[in-house]
Structures are given as C-alpha cells and as structure tokens.
Write a structure and sequence with these properties.
- The chain folds into two domains: 245 residues, Type I PLP-dependent aspartate aminotransferase-like (Major domain) (Aspartate Aminotransferase, domain 2, 3-Layer(aba) Sandwich); 132 residues, Aspartate Aminotransferase, domain 1.
- A seven-stranded mixed beta sheet has the order 1-7-6-5-4-2-3, with helices on both faces. A five-stranded mixed beta sheet has the order 8-9-12-11-10.
- By secondary structure, it is an alpha/beta fold.
- Helix 1 packs antiparallel against helix 3, helix 3 runs parallel beside helix 9 and helix 10 packs across helix 14.
- The longest helix has 20 residues.
- Helices cover 39% and strands 14% of the residues.
- The model has no long low-confidence stretch (mean pLDDT 95).
- The chain is built from 14 helices and twelve strands.
- The protein is globular.
Length: 386
C-alpha cells in the first residue's frame, strides 16, 4: 500500500521519515550550516524552495519532514513550517498580497489574526473587508463586489465556534483561499478536500499536542508553497528543528488523542448545556448549534473545544477560573491537559470591549480545550467550579 492510498491515521504514523536513515524515531538535525564544496550545487540550492542542506533559514531536514508529514495527512502536495502560527499567517498575507490588493476575511476570528488583517495590512495599503463568513451567500457576495486577492476563513471560529461552509469557500473563483483549521485539526476536517487552496494550522496546538512546541504549518499545491517559501526566507519566521521534532512526534498520536478529547467534549457540552449557571454552550456537535448540520457534513465530530457563556459575565468568569482545580487556566488549546481560557482577560484582552462584542466574545465566555483526563473527572471539576 502506498502512502497516498493509506488512510489519514496511517499517514500520520508513516509520513515524514525521509531523513531518518533507518531510525524508527525521527532524529533532530540541529545544524544551521552545511559543507558546500560543489559551487554549482550550492548555487542551485540557494534558490531551490525547501532545500534542506544549505542554510537553516532556507530549510532543515527535521523541519521539512514535519511539514511534509502534515501535508500528507491533509492530502496536499506540499507543506511549509514556521516558528509560530502567526509567523505562518503573516507569511501567507505578505507573500500573496501587495499594496492595492483586497482581502475578504470573516469578522469573527482569532483576535491576533484579526489584528494582523485590520491593523497591519492597513499600514501596507492592503484593503481588508470583514464579513459574516458564517453566511455563505454574504461571503460570496463580498468576493464578487470587488476584485479580491485573498479570502481568509477560520472554521470553527476561535472562540465564537461559528462554522464556515468549506464547499462555498473552495468554490470561489478568482482569489486565493485559505482556511485556518487549527480548532478542528486534520483529524476532524480537511479543507483541501473541498477545494481550498491553503490550509493553515497553529501547530503549537493540537498537532504538536503537548504544550511544549511553538509551530505553524501551511499546506497546499507545491507552486503556492514555493511562493510562501520565498517570503519565508526573507521574513525569517522559521521553525526550530527541536520544535519540529516535537510537532512530528505529536502528529503520530493526533488522531487517537483527538478521538478521546472529542468524545469527552461531546459529553461535557451536553451536560453543561443543562446547567443553570450557563447561558449558552457553543459546540458544533450539539443539535442546538445554529450550524450543526453543516458542521456534521464537513467535520468528523464536534471537535475538542467547548465554549460556554456564563450567565454572570466577567465576574462569573473570574470566579470560575479561581475555582477550577483539575482544569488549568491558560492561553492555549489542544494539549493533553484540559485548559480553560477566559478570552476577555486572556487571548482577546488586547481588543477593546466593543471589538470583542463585534467578534462575538462576551465578558463571561470561557473556551474549554478538552484534554485526555477521564471525562467524569473533568465534568466534576467544571460543575464544582460553576
């Protein structure tokens, strides 16, 4: 069976072994420089995308093995890794867009991506139109309104948990399309299957999966990845070999970890929805989610992130964070520990209250990244805190 014929769980185990030289465990190649005795070879490698034995900013064997492995799991021709998710996001924008270009992006998204698009892009003369991308017709209409270079979507949205129709995004004609699939992971959805050009992950999260590596990764057609590489070498947001090693290690167990976490998340969402202290539960696996049917068409489960809005607002969020004992208050997701983020004071604290409201982030919102503890233990901890 070839790697292309294997199912994605199998690809996650088998992929990224090119530089192993027979080692079952993936080795770390820490070198930043390589002997270059053949000048013709070195001249060629200097301009070859993703060359791995020239200079570490151009590429390294461990980092490329990680990117290749994610690409195989996502079903893409190629991949490129970065030193962080935002390093990857910035590279996509500035590799594909120039002054005078236009980006259509969804209004509800990760707060730092929002700042990149609405604040930084403006300084460089790139127009950004924010739309309700959870409405496929509104998204298509915004793209048709004016010439558009790039469409940026995020599904499920972080932290509002809205769902974007991947078929609608993949069917857009003209602009490059990118989907931030961090909240779903390759174990839960694969946007390339729907025609999306680029798939982006903050691999710091569930792909690496252990809260010990800082990584971003983008997959897509080789020609597009080569374009990103050209900016990546200049931009310098490169991944370290050690973090890439940790990312590759995490990818091996991604599917089994997500299977467990998603099962627990479904249980928590159902139980928390009935709690009187909870005003609203946002989870695609619940029938009450406004886009539940769409989510179940393009996702294999509801995912491992449960978002709750507490009835008591900011002070209720404060009390909850102070009371949890098993779950850990922290700004991340996708690790083996259940983490609770209070966006208004943590991940979205740099936004104004009005900006948070516009992005669907109330003061009492909690984002729960479900870990690998026993579901009953997690539920007992959360209920006690409520």
């Amino acid at each position: 069976m070839s790697d292309e014929q294997a199912r994605r769980e199998t690809r996650a185990i088998r992929a990224g072994r090119g530089p192993n030289q027979g080692s079952v465990a993936s080795p770390i190649w820490p070198s930043t420089a390589y002997e270059l005795r053949d000048l013709d070879v070195s001249a060629r490698m200097a301009v070859t995308p993703l060359a791995t034995e020239f200079y570490a900013r151009n590429g390294t064997p461990t980092v490329q093995a990680f990117a290749d492995a994610v690409a195989q799991v996502e079903g893409a021709e190629a991949g490129i890794a970065f030193g962080s998710g935002m390093g990857a996001a910035s590279t996509i924008v500035f590799a594909l867009c120039s002054p005078g270009d236009r980006i259509v992006a969804q209004a509800s998204m990760f707060s730092v991506t929002n700042q990149l698009l609405t604040r930084t892009c403006e300084r460089f003369g790139i127009e950004v139109a924010l739309v309700d991308a959870f409405d496929a017709d509104a998204l298509c209409a915004a793209v048709a309104e004016k010439p558009t270079q790039l469409v940026w979507c995020e599904t499920p949205a972080n932290p509002a948990m809205g769902i974007v129709d991947l078929e609608a995004v993949g069917g857009l004609m003209g602009p490059f399309t990118v989907v931030d699939s961090t909240m779903a992971t390759p174990a839960v959805q694969n946007p390339h299957d729907h025609g999306v050009h680029l798939v982006f992950h903050s691999a710091t999260k569930a792909i690496a999966g252990h809260n010990d590596a800082l990584l971003g990764v983008v997959t897509g057609e080789r020609e597009l990845i080569d374009v990103l590489w050209g900016h990546h070498v200049v931009h310098g947001a490169v991944a370290s070999p050690f973090d890439a090693f940790l990312g590759l290690r995490g990818l091996r167990t991604l599917h089994v970890r997500q299977r467990q976490a998603c099962e627990t998340a479904q249980v928590l969402a159902e139980r928390l929805e009935a709690h009187p202290a909870v005003e609203r539960v946002r989870y695609p696996g619940l029938a009450s989610h406004p886009q539940h049917e769409l989510a179940m068409r393009q996702m294999r489960s509801g995912g491992s992130i449960v978002v709750v809005d507490l009835a008591g607002g900011y002070e209720a969020g404060r009390a909850f964070v102070e009371q949890i004992e098993l779950a850990i208050p922290a700004v991340s997701l996708g690790g083996p520990e259940t983490l609770v983020t209070h966006p208004a004071s943590m991940s979205a604290a740099s936004l104004s209250p009005d900006e948070r409201i516009a992005m669907g982030i109330p003061e009492g919102m909690l984002r729960i990244s479900v870990g690998l503890e026993h579901a009953d233990d997690v539920l007992a901890d959360l209920v006690a805190a409520l």
